[in-house]
Design goal:
The chain is of the alpha/beta class. It is built from 21 helices and 29 strands. The strands form five sheets. Strands 15, 19, 20, 21, 22, 24, 25, 26, 27 and 28 form a ten-stranded mixed beta sheet that branches. Strands 11, 12, 13, 14, 16, 17, 18 and 23 form an eight-stranded mixed beta sheet that branches. A six-stranded mixed beta sheet has the order 2-4-3-7-8-9, sandwiched between helices. The longest helix is centred in the N-terminal third of the chain and has 33 residues, at 87-119. It is globular, with a radius of gyration of 27 Å.
Length: 743
């Protein structure tokens, strides 16, 4: 661990000892995810969720972050990060830090999670545990459903080592036979088909669910695949490859065509990780590393099933509710529990939505009403991650079919949603929607909707701004802030934002507007990549200027990640000036809190629970006249310089009070799920004082929603109803009644 420097050693807060490497900070975050599976208070079925998330997070981390570092090493990019680590040092430290965490994950799976699932009535079996009649049934299943789609790939003089696809599980099959230097042991690879469910039901009974893994079924029936051969061993393996693509601006003429080609070309990406069954002979591991050109440090010997992401499907099984989190159905804000037109309600005052406590169905209904309202002339919306069967996209298509001017800014480079978004782009274009793909250099990451409506007084603009995606599935799992407003300045700014994205070719060449131009174009919102970071720094400077020993300044910032070195340095300066700083950072935090004289007024808290904390809120005390901002931007280099973001103020006093008292204070008082960061980068759970009342922020926010909101139909039913059917029947189906009971 780096030695902590003292204030006397500081000149400009750029010393490496003041920063934590972002990759190691991320690994610590993922370990906190694993801790949720280890927590005795987490219900049995929820434990498997966190085990699965731990694995899926690592998949993405290796594909993107380790992939990026591996590419940098290949081209001899000798870059030092703010924490003083070279590319190679980061790769080595990642492997050394993560290996024991993965081993701990599988210990948790074997000793805690699977026994807990068994108590819930979910059982896993090996081939040896199954009776003969079940083995015969599985053989029939194999012959009918599996064998026809298998493609064994031999490795010999006439067959080179095959390409092993990214995240595809394979069986490395070894055969008995004489071996010589010129005739090594015969082997072949069999890919486990992903089009078949990996969890195969067996032993139907009344005592619960019973499963066996597909790879075990295939391994048991290899005598059919390799008739006449003697199978000596079948070893499960899984390769992860770099998927960190780069579209070079001067080489791209058409973004859609270029990205489609990039996706197809991913099959040639380098290997960055190998997962393999524990106790595999070392010579076989060396052989695989040679063929994959893989660093042996990134080989993970797994004591259990490779890839636990498949366990997420178990969440759909019907089990005793005691083995799950208590159910919660999102609420409708009371102001929307009315027969009045939604546009009239918004005109009467801004509406703050805190998802998933407030139902995302409100946003779906807003878009649906706009699509069907004869007075609405145009709808413009940014789409980043839409999900499948999106009711939002369905509403936009209906709007276009109803003759409205509809524009969708579809971000093709939303990582791992690229293919889905390409598919949506074709469907929306066919419906007559104006599709804009944004920029080559910057991702359009802001979340905004503009509805233009003809009213008696002229054209009026209605706006929705959010920290989260227009995705009805993740909206019930992620915490996010949304704002519905008819404020003229917001309407002007969001209209300008869409004009920038769709109409200003100066951005295509990588040139942005000057600060003065932006100030003239936008009245209230700040935009990246131009002035978002400067807007935040100016508020930090103001806190420093207004802070006194008697009345110290105060900054509260809730975000997903804090990485940008310039922002960290300004937070250090503010802390040194006595400003109190509370950071609620779910994931990566490269700042070190608690350094005497440098960051001793800074506290960093991370909260992980049933919902993914995704809200961004930035509070500045401003001498007693608080300013609050929200938006989709974290304090990361990419959000400030490589993405199009919109940071918007919360101005309504009622909404400010709600954000401060109901949201921020609830998080800061959490003493159940909160973990406080130490100056060495580690995290410790908040220790409750004896007799102190337990505060679990998400449970408290659920209680607040139940008390202040209106009960609605089940979320999934409501969203589905809003997304389909004639307008009149849809209204009658989802109409909310004031007499609805609060749950």
């Amino acid at each position: 661990m780096n030695e902590i420097v003292r204030p006397s050693d500081i000149t400009d807060y750029k010393e490496p000892e003041l920063f934590i490497n972002r990759e190691l900070s991320w690994l610590d975050f993922n370990y906190r995810v694993l801790e949720e599976a280890q927590d005795p208070q987490t219900p049995e079925l929820e434990k498997i969720k966190f085990i699965s998330i731990f694995s899926s997070n690592l998949d993405e981390f290796y594909m993107v972050r380790v992939g990026s570092l591996s590419r940098a090493r290949e081209v001899d990019l000798d870059e030092i990060d703010p924490a003083g680590l070279s590319v190679q040092k980061q790769l080595d430290t990642i492997a050394a830090s993560n290996q024991p965490k993965v081993a701990e994950q599988y210990t948790c799976l074997r000793e805690t999670v699977l026994p807990g699932l068994a108590r819930a009535g979910i059982h896993f079996h090996t081939i040896r545990e199954l009776p003969e009649d079940e083995l015969r049934s599985l053989r029939t299943f194999f012959l009918d459903q599996v064998f026809p789609i298998l493609t064994p790939l031999a490795v010999d003089a006439g067959h080179p080592f095959p390409y092993l696809g990214n995240l595809k599980e394979n069986l490395m099959v070894l055969f008995a036979g004489d071996q010589t230097e010129n005739h090594p042991q015969a082997m072949a690879f069999v890919e486990i088909p992903s089009i078949i469910d990996r969890l195969i039901p067996v032993m139907e009974s009344a005592d619960g669910y019973h499963f066996i893994f597909l790879e075990d079924v295939i391994a048991h029936n290899l005598d059919i695949v390799f008739s006449g051969m003697i199978v000596e061993q079948a070893i499960p393996i899984r390769v992860t490859r770099n998927l960190d693509y780069d579209l070079h601006e001067n080489e791209v003429l058409d973004l859609l065509t270029s990205l489609e080609a990039e996706l197809k070309d991913r099959s040639n990406q380098i290997a960055v990780r190998l997962e393999i069954k524990k106790d595999t002979p070392p010579d076989l591991i060396r052989l695989l590393c040679e063929h994959l050109n893989l660093d042996p440090n990134h080989v993970y010997e797994i004591d259990g099933p490779l890839n636990t992401t498949c366990f997420m499907k178990l969440m759909n099984l019907k089990v005793d509710p005691a083995f799950r989190d208590p159910p919660f159905n999102p609420r409708i804000p009371q102001r929307l529990d009315t027969d009045a037109d939604i546009f009239k309600v918004i005109s009467d005052g801004d509406i703050l939505l805190h998802h998933p406590y407030d139902s995302f169905a409100v946003v779906v209904d807003f878009i649906n009403r706009a699509a069907m309202d004869p007075h609405v002339l145009a709808i413009k919306q940014t789409l980043y991650r839409t999900g499948s069967n999106s009711p939002i996209v369905a509403a936009l298509i209906r709007a276009a079919e109803n003759g409205k001017q509809v524009t969708a800014i579809l971000e093709l480079k939303a990582r791992f949603d690229e293919e889905s978004n390409i598919g949506w782009s074709h469907r929306m274009a066919d419906a007559g929607i104006n599709i804009v793909f944004g920029f080559v250099k910057w991702k359009v990451h802001c979340k905004a909707t503009l509805v233009v409506r003809r009213e008696k007084t002229g054209l009026k603009k209605y706006v929705h701004l959010s920290t989260g995606n227009y995705n009805s599935s993740t909206a019930k799992l992620y915490t996010d802030i949304g704002l519905l407003t008819a404020d003229d300045d917001f309407g002007h700014d969001v209209s300008s934002l869409f004009n920038v994205i769709t109409g200003f070719n100066s951005w295509v060449g990588g040139r942005t507007f000057s600060q003065d131009t932006v100030m003239n174009m936008f009245r209230k919102i700040a935009i990246s990549p131009v002035n978002t970071m400067d807007a935040m720094i100016s508020r930090i400077k103001r806190e420093i200027e207004k802070s006194t020993p008697e009345q110290p300044g105060l900054i509260i910032a809730k975000m997903n990640a804090l990485v940008e070195p310039k922002m960290i340095r300004w937070l250090y300066k503010a802390s040194a000036a006595g400003v109190r700083i509370n950071l609620i950072v779910r994931g990566i935090c490269c700042l070190r809190p608690g350094i005497p004289g440098i960051s001793d007024t800074i506290q960093v808290t991370s909260i992980l629970d049933r919902f993914l904390e995704h809200t961004r809120i930035y509070y500045f005390h401003n001498g007693g006249d608080p300013e609050i901002f929200s938006g989709s931007a974290d304090w990361m280099p990419r959000n400030f310089k490589r993405r199009v973001e919109a940071l918007f103020p919360i101005e309504d006093k009622r909404l400010k009070t709600r954000i401060i008292d109901e949201i921020l204070m609830t998080y800061l008082n959490d003493n159940v799920k909160a973990r406080v960061m130490q100056s060495d980068g580690s995290y410790r759970r908040v220790e409750r004082i004896k007799g102190q009342h337990k505060v679990c922020s998400q449970i408290k926010l659920i209680a607040i929603a139940r008390k202040g909101g209106v009960k609605s139909p089940p979320y999934e039913d409501l969203v589905k109803a809003l997304g389909t059917g004639p307008f009149e029947s849809r209204l009658s189906e989802v109409k909310l009644k004031k007499s609805a009971k609060k749950k």
